[in-house]
Amino acid sequence: MIPDAASAQLSEPTKRVSIGWLLAFALAWFGFWLLIVLPGQFMVLKLASVLDPMGKVASSSFMIAEMSVVIVVSVPFIGVACDRTRTRFGRRRAWILGGFVTATVPFAFVGAQASWPLAALLLAVVSLGQAAVLVALSAVIADQVPREQRGRASAAMGVPQVIALAGGMVIVTMLVTDVAQSWFVIAALALASSIPFLVMLRDTEPGPLLPRARFRMLRRSDLHGYRDFSWAMLSRVLINAGNLTGTTYLLYFLADVLHVPDPDEALTTLIFVYLGACAAASWLSGILSDRWQMRRHFVAASAALQAAAALCLAFVPTWESAMVAAVLLGFGFGTFLAVDQALITDVLPRPESRARDLGIINSAQYLPIAPVVGWLVLGVAGYTELYAVTAVIIVAGGITVYRIRSVR
Question: What parts of the sequence cross the membrane (predicted)?
């Protein structure tokens, strides 16, 4: 039996968080997303094209896949350690700070490397820090945000992703065009973005270590109650994998298929269109999903919109079609970002292992499906086939969400 005091500490939070708390939380996620989305969407591809122009698809795919693997493998261990941490500085706050420092220091020097294997080595260390931040920031939602505000908290987690991508693209393509300097600037900005939330955050008291919180991974006896959690994880993995498969190679699509005069500028334009649609859809979906408590339908609708965007690129490869696809993708992914984290938090089976479980499900979206699929499809076919496969993967994720039974 769990002691009464510990039960109270592990119960669902009831005190509403403030707007200031949500804004600082969003800013911390903004810093995290700078380190995640910019390398995957542009910086690694740009670096590979400079260091390895003939083998840029293979080398960029390797670096992106390597980062994903490090995150996926390390997150469960970090999650268990985070749940067990007991310090005056706080368990979540200690891991957030340590994660940002571990990620940003090597990140700052990636662009200065003379070969892509050296850059890949630094990116592996960066990924360990990213994993720590992901675990601790994700757990804060379950620790401190009541159920009726989780759609807003999910939006505060998701909207900064597209803002980081758009703002970061402006920095690295227009303001700081030197490759080495761009990595340093993004690292400094990411670290600075975490400071307000670290100052504001007051960790909940974790209480004594419970038998179920011992330092071990999931065992067969632990899996009772994880049915909906597992379906939610599969849905998230598929939708994120499809989205990343479609967007990771967009820079090369613009250059090699559409033959636009300035691919960097064209990609930035598409991202701004995507940002506007994404921000609008994310905030509205977060509010409506809290009001209606209907998470699954929002996730399914987001998958349909993103699949439609992929099909536009697959069968109508024009600049105008790319603009339409950016709008559809923005509406779809914005809706997904606003609702999915709330859905995940609602189906958590064990309060004493929040960091571990949220870390596992949040890291699962970084399984290196996108670079593997992209490398395989582009190795034997072309971009039409790549975006058709993208649509299939996303639709599968939208269908899978209806296997969840404990939430609407």
Answer: 21-42, 62-82, 94-112, 118-142, 154-176, 182-201, 237-255, 267-286, 298-316, 322-339, 360-380, 386-404
